[in-house]
Amino acid sequence: MSLWSFLVATWQATPASVKAILTGLVGTLFGAWVASRASAKRRVIDELRALHSAYALCFTIANKALQIKRQHVRSMWERHAAAVEAWDAYAANPIGPFALDLDM
Whole-prediction pTM value? Predict the structure, then answer.
């Protein structure tokens, strides 16, 4: 007697109430497995969305920092370079007092 024929004979000899319980159990386990897979996929998608939000925030901060540099730091550097040139010109030929407007 093969295993398959033994299982078929056992299933046919099983009472209907036990069959209903067993099929309900299998259905419940399969449904729980499908739900856990869907939940895992949802968690992964939520994590990817959180990473995307973090990247967007990082890009925004870097963009603002570069804008500040372009708007403020560059003009301060240009004024500093002009002051250094004026000092170098004065140091080469020191006539009278050296006047420099300082931006504190």
Answer: 0.43
